[in-house]
Design the sequence.
């Protein structure tokens, strides 16, 4: 069933642990000072900070390459700029380490990490934000944006490394207040970002999405540690570790992804897509793709129908606020719902005109045939309910089990509505497709008999909002919806 966003968050212990455990460890160390020993080592500090800067710059390079994709959007540009900001400022932070290259203590060694964290948090938040004209301009001029980032940050950081006393050489009393405000702002900006990328990772199991969620969470932890930690103590070193973990994890994800057939640049470009079907389809197991290709080769009608049905089902599921696991199962199941047609005689599938009663009984076997086919594939087990029960009817008159009302699995009820919507709105050999308004009228006529009425209402909302279709002026024909629900053939 649909869940509210807060309920979904509370049902994800992994995400909660990622956000809560780092600050909790800091609280414990503050409560027990013995757990927060002092450790002063300038050379080690330079090496760790260099690692952070290097990893950030590698991610920046990968993101910059993805901006060349035609439809990349502003997300990769913001990601590349944010990583460049971290790389440049953390290089300056490392080179200002007291005792390294003759440097003495300067307040800028403490200020630059705040600049890095604040800019990276802002970049991730902007990448996840809905696009507007400014976003589009940035997407259209990625090179200018990235060159400007290098110049605007690179020149002052270089000047500070050469002479840290060139500006604001002493700490101001209001600086701790500013750092507290930045910490709160980072939490406010990046908790939603972490949740968004975590959800996308759950949809498609894409390591780059997991890395983005991890980088956002580690940035939150780093800001908290930097604000609450004690200089040169373990609690202060933590922020270096969090940033290193976040960016090194991203480099690892890029390395693993580069071994797959899909280009890393494409994966980064798609990482900021809002459409859940993009992330679900990216994570399709090979068995699913193979089965769909096989059934499309055998049944020309299924070509395109499976994909369109999955897309409509995903839209309905998103509006119902299904959990990531349910949305993934629904979309994959809808994509595979006709896979059982592989086991149906090709002469019946491709017959022109109406089926006789025996042929109809044969084609009505396809839900059970499909379920039997995927039952042995553990990667497809989540799709079984949709495949087996997408032809059940709300009043019990469907097949193969004659289930009634809420006895029909919830995801199968959604897929049934999406299946008929596509069947009605696309051309058949014996009739042209109906207009969206007429198709919706026919489905509305079947609400409460053939379809779950609540799901039909959600389809209507989706059609009104996404297609701009007005509420049908006339009453539809339930028999037309019934015909579309049966098969791709004309009823005898």
Sequence:
């Amino acid at each position: 069933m649909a869940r509210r966003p807060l309920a979904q968050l509370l049902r994800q212990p992994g995400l909660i642990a990622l956000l809560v455990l780092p600050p909790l460890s800091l609280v414990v160390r503050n409560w027990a000072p013995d757990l927060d020993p002092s450790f002063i080592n300038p050379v080690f500090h330079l090496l760790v900070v260099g690692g952070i800067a290097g990893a950030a710059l590698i991610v920046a390079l990968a993101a910059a390459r993805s901006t060349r994709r035609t439809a990349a959007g502003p997300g990769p540009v913001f990601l590349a700029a944010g990583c460049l900001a971290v790389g440049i400022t953390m290089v300056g932070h490392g080179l200002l380490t007291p005792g390294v290259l003759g440097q003495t203590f300067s307040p800028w060694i403490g200020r630059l990490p705040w600049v890095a964290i604040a800019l990276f948090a802002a970049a991730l938040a902007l990448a996840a934000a809905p696009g507007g004209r400014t976003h589009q301009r940035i997407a259209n001029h990625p090179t200018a944006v990235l060159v400007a980032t290098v110049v605007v940050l690179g020149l002052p950081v270089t000047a500070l490394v050469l002479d840290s006393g060139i500006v604001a050489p002493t700490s101001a009393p209001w600086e701790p207040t500013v750092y507290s405000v930045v910490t709160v702002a980072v939490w406010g900006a990046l908790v939603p970002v972490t949740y968004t990328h975590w959800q996308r990772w759950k949809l498609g199991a894409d390591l780059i999405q997991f890395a983005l969620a991890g980088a956002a969470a580690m940035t939150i932890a780093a800001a908290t540690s930097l604000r609450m930690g004690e200089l040169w103590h373990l609690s202060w070193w933590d922020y270096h570790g969090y940033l290193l973990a976040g960016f090194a994890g991203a480099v690892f994800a890029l390395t693993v992804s580069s071994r797959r057939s899909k280009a890393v640049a494409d994966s980064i470009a798609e990482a900021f897509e809002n459409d859940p079907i993009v992330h679900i389809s990216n994570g399709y197991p090979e068995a699913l793709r193979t089965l769909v290709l096989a059934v499309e080769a055998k049944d020309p009608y299924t070509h395109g129908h499976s994909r369109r049905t999955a897309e409509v089902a995903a839209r309905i599921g998103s509006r119902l606020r299904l959990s990531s696991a349910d949305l993934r199962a629904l979309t994959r199941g809808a994509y595979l719902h006709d896979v059982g047609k592989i086991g149906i005689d090709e002469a019946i599938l491709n017959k022109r005109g109406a089926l006789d009663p025996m042929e109809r009984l044969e084609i009505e076997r396809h839900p059970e045939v499909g379920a039997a086919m995927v039952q042995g594939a553990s990667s497809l087990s989540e799709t079984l309910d949709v495949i087996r029960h997408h032809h059940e009817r709300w009043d019990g008159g469907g097949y193969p089990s004659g289930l009634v009302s809420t006895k029909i699995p919830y995801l199968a009820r959604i897929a049934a509505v999406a299946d008929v919507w596509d069947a009605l709105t696309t051309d058949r050999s014996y009739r042209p497709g109906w207009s969206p308004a007429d198709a919706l009228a026919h489905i509305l006529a079947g609400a409460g008999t053939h379809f779950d009425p609540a799901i039909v209402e959600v389809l209507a909302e989706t059609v009104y909002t996404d297609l701009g279709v007005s509420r049908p002026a006339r009453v539809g024909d339930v028999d037309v919806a019934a015909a579309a629900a049966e098969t791709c053939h004309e009823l005898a």
